[in-house]
Amino acid sequence: MSGPEPFDVDGTADELPGPDVPGPDVPDPDAPLPPEQSGLASMIESLLFLSSEPVRLDALAIACDTGPEEVAAALRELRRVFAPGRRGLLLREVGGGFLLSSAPETEPAARRLLTAPRTPPLTPAQAETLAIVAYLQPVSRPEITRIRGVAADSACATLVERGMIEEAGRSQFGAVLYRTTGLFLKLFGLDGLGDLPDTAAWDPTPEETATLRERLMIAGDARSGADATAGDDPAARPAFDLSGAGMVEGGDPRDAAPDRSADGPGDARPSED
Fold this sequence. Notes:
Oligomer: single chain
Helix content: 25-40%
CATH architecture of the largest domain: Orthogonal Bundle
Shape: elongated
Strand content: 5-15%
Structural class: alpha+beta
Strand order of the largest sheet: 3-5-4
Largest sheet: 3 strands, antiparallel
Distance between the termini: 67 Å
Radius of gyration: 30 Å
Order of helices and strands: HHHEEHHEHHEEHH
CATH topology of the largest domain: Arc Repressor Mutant, subunit A
């Protein structure tokens, strides 16, 4: 016994597969849509959007916790919504299931989009460098190097090339200062630098705290021109307040940027690569 014929790619067939559920008439693209889509149709639309493979009617019924007749009716409703020429998507039946696909006329644009070079994600070195610039800006590359413990040349160059940071003048010793850009705010969904996450939310381990504290102390000594290892015991220094991290509550991080009067041309550090 043969079942009802599936509707074709352009949505002109008369029936949707289902348990003896009659199909609707051929949808008229110019016919007015109902003022509001049913909840079940919206749910199925969401499931089809999330799935990269065709979804069978019975699987949709189980996922929606309803009967196949209701699912078939909702699919007929969606078929009208995605009638050819009405939207940029089509409701298609493929391999015994249903999926949403792009309309044929969008193929040239889709090819141009999907064949464009993809921007690689940030490496850990680049992410660390970007975080330092974001919270301490304007900040120089030698200072970034002292805080991270490895050379920041490659990371800074890549972040500048990708438009996330930019030059913001020079220190009195000629070191280039960096700050974040508008693209950085856009990519991370920030309205301004005041929306950066509060560093107090980070809960480091005691070992991480000690390591970071020592790096920051060394960087501070370098800025003041002092020898980081002379005259005192680093372990006896007062604890560094990580909750502050150079930020002024409710203000712009660059307003609280530390004095960089001792920034030099750089110091020899291991390469981050």
